[in-house]
Known about the structure:
The complex is a heterodimer.
Chain A: H1 2-26, H2 30-52, H3 72-103
Chain B: H1 2-22, H2 26-46, H3 50-75, H4 87-104, H5 122-132, H6 138-146, H7 148-169, H8 187-210, H9 218-236, H10 238-244, H11 247-270, H12 285-324
Amino acid sequence: MSFIVDYYNYWIVVFLMMAGFYIVISANNLVKKIVxxxxxxxxxxxxxxxxxxxxxxxxxxxAEGITTYSNPLPHVLILTxxxxxxxxxxxxxxxxxxxxxxYGTVEENEFExxxxxx
Amino acid sequence: xAEFIDLVLLGMxxxxxLRVIFLKDLFAVVMLFGIYSxxxxxxxxxxxxxxxxxxxxxVGAGISTVLMLGTLALTGRKEKTSNHPALLPLLVVGVxxxxxxxxxxxxxxxxxxxxxxHQHVAPRYIEDSPQEIGLPNMVTSVLASxxxxxxxxxxxxxxxxxxxxLSLLGLPKRDRQAIExxxxxxxxxxxxxxLIIPLTILFALYVQFHGDYGPGGGFQAxxxxxxxxxxxxxxxxxxxxxxxxxxxxxxxxxxxxVLIYAGTGVANFFxxxxxxxxxxxxxxxxxxxxIGIILIELGxxxxxxxxxxxxxxxxxxxxxxxxxx
Lengths: 118, 325
């Protein structure tokens, strides 16, 4: 049982990462690809936060009577990464909107016939 | 008990991700992604990362869902069936996943206090930051003081991303005579929104200025304040919202936030300190740290607010233009 608890978080992280990866390479629709990229990204967040956890620890805010705190450093890295992540996702979505306007479609397999339009 | 909650929530997260793969209705995919974000936020709370959970809940479930729905309004909600063979991606993913699982067995066990990650700088942050910086929230101390240069970079990336979106889509013009939009005819929505919006803005200010003591800070406050205006725009229409918070003002604010941040750093040069070393800002180093942190958190909050809102305006302006056509 302890073997499972020790590695469960990492396995779920790998599963989520692969689910995101699969969506990115197999999905036909560009919006769905971006959702896949986001899932991939969240799996990395989950890994950092899992590494920062200390068993029996508390949130890293000083309070009386608490001696063990979880590691604050991964929290800082991921906090900023989430906001940067949504900003870069927005750039990706803006590109999708422009692709729709230029090609009339956001389905990957339909671009080929429309290349000479541009 | 915490381990058990962890097992269940992570399992639910995996199921949600699995469902996203097979759904063809993109509206449902985006909604599931909102659920996915909330579940992640719960897991972050369970893993003691309250600041991260706060950010994930406001960003993931608030802003990114709205942006994705805005894109769907322009691109259509159905994914067409693909004629790709599904075998090759599955093979690639399977092999990569197996390699990563094999690698994960060399990872240090989850939650062990003797893990390498807890040996390097973390003890110093935990033991010395309450005296050195004088703030109870260590995440804010690390974010805004020890690693302030890093955070300056992140703020600049948010600013750059907003510029990218604006150059791709453009901001809507401020137009009083624009056609009626929004959901003004829904009485319940209108009344509830009017009740919620002022409280949300008040809460954003609380998060901004209480971030030194509890979970919160500039990143979360900026997103929450932007969410309040986004709600206003959704219910009362984009023309009304651009009248309240003008697009031109947002451009100035986005740059102003980065300027406040970098300016605080440069001010230290003139007082004889290093870049973003706030000890010189007051006669007492701890008071100087406090002033510096409040200033740069303010810069972060302003930039994030302006960037998120102008990104939303850009998407909503596109959707509005399509509706008129």
